[in-house]
């Protein structure tokens, strides 16, 4: 299985370090509801996990919850109680979204505020090793000291201004600067601080991911995921901190998903196109369709969310659900069996090529089309169910149930057709239509579709 590694800018054969694949994904800042761009990143991690599981790997997945940063301190006006209230509220909302989108839960969701001790340990190591220095307002990481700084994002250190520092979480994304590992307490922080060996204060943003990843996955692990917007400075700084503190390679494979676009534009507050999950549900789209759209474009390509692409996803999901609803409990014929083999191979090959989901989807829809013509049985049904382990559609929640009444009418119509009573057959078709279903006549019988 090949994966595109941002670190080497190459598709590389994936080789895990141990028996379990260690995956770390940058999680949400629980400051408000996740927007659809965030959801794309979470769904990308989910797709990666599902493909690895499909291939038989075991996984240990960690996703952090950022429950302290500049914005959160401002929002809670320096009050620890209020901070807790806000972060718990949005952490719940985040987890609810994951459940709604049928995302396999991570094994651990550590909170930054509960990992302060581990962060302090890393900062101490960095001070000892000469990668960090103290100023009046905090402890900073010296990017010049780490010779490979910027290798992940391809940042050139030549334009680095000596001693240029950044203390807030809002970075300019152009130039490298020394960044805060630990921020000393100041008045605006109110009662939000930790008394530690390195001083009274709170952590910078990047240090939390270095601390929480090594806490659960060790100092060297397999895969780190996140949105491309995190590549610099966040992941660049994580890597610099961890490798400088531990003196060893941090992560083997860095995987980044591209941006989500809304109607061809970047999502932004000022354009008013900042969607959260409930906005799309309120427009009438199903959770399965939303999930489908967010995974259906290859993760390294920009994904365009529009009403049209959502509608198309809704149709695609319906075709899968209909296939399942009409699947017949019988043996498959020879043609189908060979088609199943061919499709399985195509799907595995697609996954192995850096999770080529577009090819997975085209293979399964080609199969469904052919199987509908050839007459699908048990094994055809199993193939679609197995493929759904990758797609992760919730088959139960939106299951297409064909009511007893409809099934009976379909049977009556079959009889009428056998007796060549076309008038009765047409009347029954109309009656079935009134109940919300249409019929496709095929060689091996009839299939029922929801209107
Ligand atoms: Zn992170």
Q: In CATH's first tier, which class of the largest domain applies?
A: Alpha Beta
Task: Give unreliable regions as ranges.
Answer: none
Main pleated-sheet profile: 6 strands, mixed
What is the arithmetic mean of pLDDT?
A: 94
Ligand catalogue: zinc ion
Summarize this, please?
This protein is α/β, with parallel strands linked by helices. The chain contains 14 helices and 17 strands. Strands 5, 6, 7, 8, 9 and 10 form a six-stranded mixed β-sheet that branches. The chain has a four-stranded parallel β-sheet with strand order 4-3-11-12, with helices on both faces.
Structural notes for this entry:
By secondary structure, the protein is of the alpha/beta class. It has three domains: 2-257, Rossmann fold; 265-391, Isoleucyl-tRNA Synthetase, Domain 1; 404-450. The chain is built from 14 helices and 17 strands. The longest helix has 21 residues, at 80-100. The chain starts with a strand and ends with a strand. The mean pLDDT is 94. Bound molecules: zinc ion.
